[in-house]
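Q: Sequence in, structure out?
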Amino acid sequence: RQAIELNGPIGCGDVAVFPGDIIVGDQEGVVVIPLHMVDNVAHEATEMTAFEDFVTEQVHAGEAVIGLYPATSEKSQADFAEWRNRTGR
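A: Exactly. Output:
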């Protein structure tokens, strides 16, 4: 067998993968991030991780999940902002 093309686009499942795309996987699955979106995705992932860490701390401290995740109440949004200031995240 020989490669028909090197460094060209492919289809993997129902997803197009282009040269330069970033592939990230963990125990929950795999995603393909187009190269032009990498910085935005990294920023959003960092923000989401911080929020999920905040929620985890709050739930372990006895807070209810309703209104906290997603942050639909003004109180939970204010608490998250205070947590970010306190933790530097």
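The longest strand covers residues 22-26.
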